[in-house]
Design a protein that fits this description.
Number of helices: 21
Helix content: 40-55%
Largest sheet: 7 strands, parallel
Shape: elongated
Strand order of the largest sheet: 3-4-2-5-6-1-7
Strand content: 5-15%
Radius of gyration: 28 Å
Length: 505
């Protein structure tokens, strides 16, 4: 059923931004050249208005061809949001959900919105037949679940849209399913034009040596929870929040329900307004929690990736990545939740507690999406590994601890430089740690009245000792965790002995 002229005129009054018009024209140029049996992928950053763009494409396509359109999503919430946007564009549409078994009324609609699993089940059961479909639009196209439906729409023009044209499964690259990629405006371009908020990124070094990689290529929930639920990481998270995000509306992303519950307890005990949300919450609970989050200025919401897509709350001022991920898509999705702009929010904070920035680069860094689309294997191979990331960590004594060593002028020690000297002068490699112990012992003695105070003071050097031992283990190419643990214990024992010796002297 075609739109009435009055309806089209009403829609044409809606203003599209220049970059959106330009990309729509590019997509229609491909439609004119390849009207059917062509798969086109379109990339645009989160917040750029992908739903607005493909809703306008649907409206124009139906008007021009009189053929029908199917829009596919992977979550029920996205179905409702998409249907609402299409309606705003005067496109009469119907949602095919679990309650829809047959389409007796399909002649009344020119557009259908469906979840991929629901539509796949209906088409496989031969209980539902879609007639005169000319175009299929796939939202969040990087998910591989959509591939199973391609066989039902072989002669259609398929348009996939995504913020990250990198498959969620590295073994199933997107180039195998799409003929071409069109790249939209960059994040920086949208920031400069005033469409996205400016990110301010803070990183905190986290040792990820205990994490394990699962079948999906990302860190397992089990190993992540073992790391992020320990008291040390909880303290680091709370410190990072208080240092960079206190008083800001904050989203915390975790890898595992237990971790999120631990985060909730930690912040609750500290007296901060926080709620926890995961996929076990009922629909009503979810609505209540999100409404509370919306209405509370300094609210904190800790969750387990449930808010990475289909969640739009412009008042979010801070994003905390309390997890590590190997997924570029997830990295962009999590941060994108804070990128919506408001007159009162020209910038937002990103706190990274998973070395994700070191792995992928800054969220607003330039990305060669065409290269990633064509050669995903090369991209994966070029990612910086965790061990290499940790090699670049540099520990700096925090200001509050530095005050404890106010009488010491020099507290720095270059492990690599000292190791180079041992090679140059043919000395034992352990000379490096011996010299480091001497310096630490001197610092403790210079700032203590007696041996007991000095030994107590040495305990606050644990982080510095861990850092120096790790640097040393890299130098000698023997960096197993067991070996480092033994070196640390030996270091602390010798440090106590050296402190005793200095006081006796």
């Amino acid at each position: 059923m075609a739109l009435l002229p009055t309806e089209i005129a009403k829609k044409e009054q809606k203003v599209l931004y220049d970059y959106q018009k330009r990309d729509i024209d590019k997509i229609f140029s491909r439609l004119e050249e390849f009207p059917e049996a062509y798969n086109l992928l379109y990339q645009l950053p989160t917040g750029g208005g992908k739903t607005v763009i493909f809703s306008e494409i649907v409206r124009r396509y139906i008007k021009a061809t009189k053929k029908k359109v199917v829009v596919l999503t992977h979550r029920i919430e996205l179905c409702s949001q998409t249907s609402k946007m299409l309606t705003e564009f005067q496109v009469k549409n119907k949602i095919i959900n679990s309650s829809v078994k047959e389409l007796y009324d399909q002649d009344e609609y020119m557009c259908f919105v469906a979840m991929v699993e629901t539509l796949n089940n209906r088409l496989n059961d031969d209980k539902l037949e879609l007639n005169d479909i000319g175009m299929v639009i796939i939202d969040e196209a990087h998910y591989n679940s959509f591939r199973k439906l391609f066989r039902f729409f072989k002669n259609c023009f398929i348009l996939g849209v995504t913020a990250t044209p990198l498959s969620s499964n590295m073994k199933l690259p997107m180039k195998d399913n799409y003929n071409e990629l069109i790249v939209g405006d960059t994040i920086n371009s949208l920031i400069k034009s005033g469409f996205l908020s400016t990110p301010v990124t803070y990183t905190y070094d986290v040792g990820l040596g205990s994490l394990k990689i699962g079948m999906n290529g990302d860190y397992t929930v089990k190993s992540s929870e073992e790391l992020y639920t320990n008291m040390q990481m909880q303290d680091k998270l709370l410190h990072a929040y208080e240092e960079r995000s206190k008083g800001k509306k904050t989203l915390i992303f975790n890898n595992g329900i237990n971790t999120s519950i631990y985060v909730y307890d930690t912040f609750k005990k500290a007296g901060y307004p926080i709620r926890h949300l995961d996929n076990t919450n009922s629909r009503q609970e979810r609505e209540d929690i999100l409404e509370w989050f919306k209405q509370t200025d300094d609210a904190i919401l800790t969750s387990v990736s449930i808010l990475t897509t289909g969640f739009d709350e412009p008042t979010v001022e801070s994003i905390i990545l309390n997890r590590a991920t190997k997924s570029l898509t997830l990295y962009f999705q999590m941060i994108g939740r804070g990128s919506r702009i408001l007159p009162t929010k020209p910038e937002f904070s990103i706190i990274d507690l998973g070395n994700n920035t070191a792995r992928f680069g800054l969220w607003n860094a330039e990305m060669d999406w065409q290269s990633i689309f064509r050669s995903p294997d090369f991209y994966y191979d070029s990612l910086v590994g965790d061990e290499e990331i940790e090699r670049n960590f540099k520990y700096v004594l925090p200001d509050d601890l530095r005050k404890e060593f106010a009488n010491s002028v020099d507290i720095e020690f270059d492990i690599e430089d000292e190791y180079a000297k041992t090679k140059r002068y043919n000395l034992r490699s352990l000379t490096v740690l011996e010299k480091s112990i001497e310096q630490h012992a001197k610092m403790c003695v210079e700032n203590s009245e007696d041996v007991f105070d000095a030994r107590i003071l040495s305990r606050i050097l644990d982080k510095d000792i861990e850092y120096r031992v790790r640097r040393y283990s890299y130098c000698i190419s023997k960096s197993t965790k067991n070996y480092r643990d033994w070196l640390e214990e030996d270091y602390k024992r010798k440090l106590r002995s050296k402190i005793n010796q200095l006081f006796m002297d």
